[in-house]
Amino acid sequence: MSSARPMQVPRLAAAASLALVASVLASCQSPATHRERADAAAQAIIEEVQAERLGRTEPVRIETSADTLRRRLLLGQDLPTAGPASLGTQALEDPEHWPELGEPDPDLVEPPHLPEGADAVQDGLTLSLVDALQVAARNSRSYQDQKEAVFETALSLDLERYRLETTFGGLLRAMFRTDEDADERGVEGTAELSVNRRFEAGAQLGGRLVVDLAHLLTNEGGTSLGLLADGSITVPLLRGSGRHIVTEPRTQAQRNVLYQLFSFERFRRTLVVEVAQRYYAVLQQLDRIRNAEENYRRLVILVRRTDALEAAGRVTGIQVDQARQDLLRARERWIAARETYGRQLDQLKMTLGLPTDASIELVPGEFDRLIGEAELMFLGLDTAPVAVDDEQVADEALAADAPVDLPEPDPAERGRYELDEAKAIALALEHRLDLRTAVGRVFDAQRGIIVAADDLRMGLDLIGQATVGERRSIGSAGLRDARLDPAAGVYSAGLEVDLPWDRRTQRLELRRRMIDLQQAVRDVQELEDEVKLDVRDALRDLLEQRENYRIQVQAQEIAERRVEQAEEFLRVGRADVRDVLEANEALIQAQNALVDALIAYRISELGFQRDVGMLRVDERGLWEEFDPHTPFIPDNEQEREEADDE
């Protein structure tokens, strides 16, 4: 039996060395390979959380295409740039020692949205609203920041999962050593392979296999192999035990991915409303330019007419000068309207992530289509003048100081999104993603208290260790080769007690965690009130803009009739120039106000859907409006759950 127990050291050492070398070679991968693995892990995590919590999956692409619309505009229109970075990361020159990072995964590259005409942008580019929304989803810097934030939280979760996986380590070392006192010189070589694992219940297991080779270069030489295997296990029995404690960092990391996805969804809804608002503002300003031009031409004609009337002695010089003054103001307004248009168009370009000096225009017919759609919203709305008092209409002789009954807005004429306030608030409380995040933070704070309270407990760990074999160095190179003989191993087991005498740091952490919980609860309360305020303000804004539209329709009709009458009376001598000038001023104000009301109502509709969390946006950047008259089906019942299943 004794002859069978000693192991064949050279063969075992050679096998262990080969396994270690193979492991080292397998782990020596290029940066490009590591990048691919990190990207694949993060993308898998994002899709996993999306499927579980949102009921759908869509790519979160963080790599931009080399052929972006911004790059085409800069190069195609020969625009000045600050350097290669203006054209994107692909245009940068690699500095010295730059690693080979490989090509990004095609699934992670955001394909550019190139509107019609983007192949030849030298003479400018025309964008529709749909184009603008999709361009923003590809080029907006804030949009890219949000996507990268989602990706980074997924990377953090991957790291936390790794901490609870089996990990391997390897070490190869060769050293020349000399001991002058013993007059010994020699070479030592070591190969070490280790494995560690932390289990979800708290136990930690570690093992190591070490192979040494010691060779003396003095004292007639001598070579010896060392072979050592050891292992240890630590099982916490009190502090640090329990799955809920050990897996807390992973749980929080997983919830952070969900929160960042919620934030991303909320940002997309906010962005599309902002893009639409800026796009409509440019169209609105175009209409203001047209109104200013028409007013300018009318006043030019009026000045010519007053000159002729003055020559005929029918008007005074004062009236002619009044007309000329208004003509100058009309020119000033026309120029200011054009410059404001350029300023607002530049702001739209900034929002889209495009160069502000690029030649870009909006679709010429987009404004007419917008007005047509906006007018459909008010189809059937009574725009007849509102009688202040029915009795007053019936009796024109009614005294001027008689009591007046003011008519309230008719609830029957509400728009499609002017919902009952209680229903609108209920929708918002259920579907606002930022509110869900705040509610989830409360549960996070509660778990934080549990972890902090656990840290106050006494530490009691069960410890076990085993060591078999011996190490070798030049000092023991003359000994025979070591061997793994379990019968000659060293074993130990025991308990380690960490008495909770000094827990000041831990008790302060507990108190901070309790304060965090109070703050998280207050954050929910504050955000809940803000959500209700947003909804109530949105409903108020919808009602105000609806009634404003009715008023402006009447105001424009009156202003047009007033201009016609003033010009006719001026011809027959029954009005002066001041009457015509005031009528023209009232008309241009009424025209602008009517368009303002239409666009404001449309923006209010989008804002209301955003504020109740019902405006959906896909990965292309296009919105999908909800029908308030059909039941809303959530993406996934699990999206309402805030507690992690773990």
Main beta-sheet annotation:
6 strands, antiparallel
Number of helices: 14
Q: What class, by secondary structure content?
A: alpha+beta
Distance between the termini: 52 Å
The portion of residues assigned to helices is 40-55%
Task: Determine the mean pLDDT.
Answer: 84
Please report which band the strand proportion falls in: under 5%, 5-15%, 15-25%, 25-35%, 35-45% or over 45%.
Answer: 5-15%
The shape is elongated
Identify the strand order in the major beta sheet.
4-5-6-7-9-10
Overall strand count: 12
Low-confidence stretches: 1-13, 390-394, 635-646
Query: Helix-strand pattern, N to C?
Result: HHEHEEHHEEEEHHHEHHHHEEHHEE
- Kindly provide the radius of gyration, computed on alpha-carbon positions and rounded to a whole number of angstroms: 39 Å
Task: State the gist of this model.
By secondary structure, the protein is an alpha+beta fold. 53% of the residues lie in helices and 14% in strands.
Looking at this protein, list some descriptive labels:
single chain, 646 residues, alpha+beta, six-stranded antiparallel sheet, two-stranded parallel ribbon, 14 helices, 12 strands, elongated, disordered N terminus, disordered C terminus
